Amino acid sequence: MSKKGPKRQRRKQSKKYGKEFYTVVVLFVIAVAVFAMFFIQKPLEVRIVQVKFEIGESPGIDLNKTVLSFGRVPPKSKTYRNIDFENGYDFPVNVTIYASKEISEFISVSPSFEIDAHNKTMVPFELVVSKSATYGNYTGKILFEIRKK
Q1: Residue 54 has what pLDDT?
Q2: What strands lie across the sheet with 107-108, from one edge to the other?
Q3: What's the pLDDT tens digit per position in 32-83?
Q4: pTM for this prediction
Q5: pLDDT value at position 9?
Q6: How far is CA 45 from the centre of its chain?
Q7: Given this model, what pLDDT does residue 13 score?
Q8: By CB neighbour count within 10 A (0-12 exposed, 13-18 middle, 19+ buried), where does 74 fall?
Q9: Whether CATH 2.40.50 fits 45-148
Q10: For residue 140, what pLDDT is reported?
């Protein structure tokens, strides 16, 4: 009789730990699914805009319509440009903006915004050139990642 008692206890403990293990696994799977839905959502679209500017002695203007161009900008100055952004989708979207590493130290822009279905908005960009910036031509890209709201 003393031999059957400990075996039953071990079976009960193993069943208990088995249930706890499965509960932990199920909760982990749910957590991963929630994370994937909210944080790894693939963008609907990525729009890329080429950017160019020159750091030089005197200011200069470049009215290129296919590129976001700031022209020639002297050190210790800033300049502004806008991009018109249109949401062509039938639902509101969230837009996240990234500047490529070649220009990110110079470009200032709101990192994200929301826009309603079939609306337009103006996105302002500021180019800030420090006193110690190196003269030369700079090019890079601005990426607009568009996700369903």
Answers
A1: 95
A2: 77-86, 120-129, 107-108
A3: 777 766 666 788 999 999 999 999 988 777 766 778 999 999 999 999 999 9
A4: 0.69
A5: 58
A6: 12
A7: 56
A8: middle
A9: no
A10: 96
Q: Where are the domains of the chain?
A: 1-40, 45-148
**Structure tokens, 142:** 């601005």
- Type of residue numbered 8: R
DSSP string computed for the chain: -TTHHHHHHHHHHHHHHHHHHHHHHHHHHHHHHHHHHHHSPPPSEEEEEEEEEEE-SS-B----SSSEEEEEE-TTEEEEEEEEEE--SSS-EEEEEEE-TTTTTTEE--SEEEE-TT-EEEEEEEEEE-TTPPPEEEEEEEEEEEEE-
Neighbours of 95 (CB within 10 A): 22
Residue 49, amino acid: V
The answer to whether 29 and 122 are in contact (CB under 8 A) is no
C-alpha to C-alpha distance for 137 and 56, rounded to whole angstroms: 9
pLDDT of 93-131, one tens digit each? 999 999 999 999 999 999 999 999 999 999 999 999 999
